[in-house]
Amino acid sequence: MTRYPQVAAFSGDENTIRVVGHRGARGILPENSIVGFDFALSIGVDLLEFDVLLSRDDIPVITHNHEFHGSAVRGADGAFLNGEHPRVASLTMAEIERFDIGRLNADTEYGRRFPDQAQMDGVRVPRLGELLQLVSQPRYAAACLMLELKSDPDLAQDSAVRERIVSVICRDVREAKLADRTLLHSFDWALLAECRRQAPDMPLSFLTQLQENEHDVGEDSSILVTPDFSNPDISVPDEVSKAGGSLWCPHFSELGANDLAQARELGLAVAAWTVNEPDDIEAMIDLRVDAIVTDYPGRVQQRLSERGFRWRR
Asked: What mean pLDDT do residues 240-265 have?
């Protein structure tokens, strides 16, 4: 289907639907943490999705929001953050490492979304390099990465910022010799265009979400940086293909059989995000998507196994 081996890793077949650990295994372990990534890999989930931002001193760090919130971040005193939200881009790596992301605050709406997540201490925001080192181990030689480049809405129009983000992140991936196991993934299509310019050897994965759909509570919204596809005459798979995409990653609720068939005709792999509830998992299996992005990889593995599907070849 494509010359990129990492896209083949995210592509299913008649007997295989891939499982992608969303932020590791957010449903049961701290999100975007090395312990969560290691767990997902250890249970045979070879595909990881995660978010990358830059610190003030240009260190790529794995975290979703542009600000640290008290729903999931504690300070050096062990208390959940209260009041002002520190901005990742304004903090050095040394400052970021003082925060603890090992617990959720059950007094917040976001914290209550994942009641089964383990509560841990001493879990730090990882550098991208730490995850690259983990998947470089021989036992994880099959692992591939869906690396989401996060776009700051306040700076999304600044081409110099885009160039720096892509350059720094791709440098780390190349130095780890993992370019052939990495997809560059984003809601910001301008950022992906910069990826195509700087890293033509790494395939592009286009995230989409319709403008009318609400963002998840406690999380930065993608609406300000993603293209508007509300016009019913627009074919999203066609737009992804024209933009140079190898993989399309729509929200599962926005994916139908016709769009999936068109994506396949265009040679796109399709990974649906973020699929957690049993009925939604079943619906994506019925559609025969290539990959299911989920906070509960074990839950998806179980449904696939029950229905006679594999998630690894």
From this structure: 97
| Of 59, 39, 63, the residue nearest 50 (C-alpha) | 63
**Residue 24 located in a structural domain:** yes
Tokens for 173? 């991936």
For residue 310, give every residue at least 6 positions away whose Cβ sits within 8 Å of its Cβ, in sequence order, or none: 15, 16, 17, 304
pLDDT tops 70 at residue 216: yes
Question: Which has the closest alpha carbon to 182: 241, 246, 272, 125?
Answer: 246
For β-strands 144-149 and 60-62, DSSP reports them as unpaired
Q: Is residue 135 part of a domain?
A: yes
Structural domain boundaries enclosing 260 = 5-66+126-306
Whichever domain contains 290, its CATH number is 3.20.20.190
Computed over every residue of the chain, the mean pLDDT equals: 95
- C-alpha distances out from residue 247 to 6, 103, 129, 162, 172, Å: 10, 33, 24, 21, 22
Residue 1: pLDDT band (50, 70, 90) is very low
Q: Which tokens go with 154?
A: 């306040």
> What sign for the dihedral angle of Cα 59, 65, 66, 70?
negative
- Assigned token pair, 26: 């957010």
In a domain, 313, yes or no: no
**Among the listed residues 174, 100, 162, 96, the one whose alpha carbon sits nearest the alpha carbon of residue 132:** 174
Residue 39 lies in a domain: yes
Count of domains in the chain?
A: 1
Residues contacting 7, CB < 8 A, separation 6+: 1, 183, 203, 246, 247, 269
| Strand, helix or coil for residue 42 | helix
pTM above 0.85, yes or no: yes
Supply the pLDDT for residue 213: 64
